[in-house]
Design brief:
about 80 residues, about 35% helix, alpha+beta, three-stranded antiparallel sheet, 2 helices, elongated, 3 strands
Length: about 80
């Protein structure tokens, strides 16, 4: 199965990279861009007996390593 994890800064957490990208897009002529946040996508293959087991394992990975629970949120997808 394929796991896809999306990690983004929590609401209210300063995102300097997001601000730089937003300002750059404004400079390039896209003034309508607002509240831009930069995150990361982590994709990998995982072996598990079921989608539920894979989701449980990936959730644990996120909580323990892939996302910093103090400043980041995550969501995940399991694709067969």
């Amino acid at each position: 199965m394929r796991a896809i994890v999306y990690v983004t800064p929590k609401e209210g957490v300063l995102d300097p990279q997001g601000k730089v990208v937003e300002r750059s897009l404004h400079t390039l002529g896209y003034p309508g861009v607002k509240d831009l946040r930069v995150g990361k996508v982590i994709e990998f293959t995982i072996e598990a007996a079921s989608s539920a087991e894979a989701e449980d394992q990936v959730r644990q990975m996120c909580e323990r390593l892939l996302a910093n629970p103090v400043i980041e949120d995550f969501r995940l997808e399991i694709v067969k």
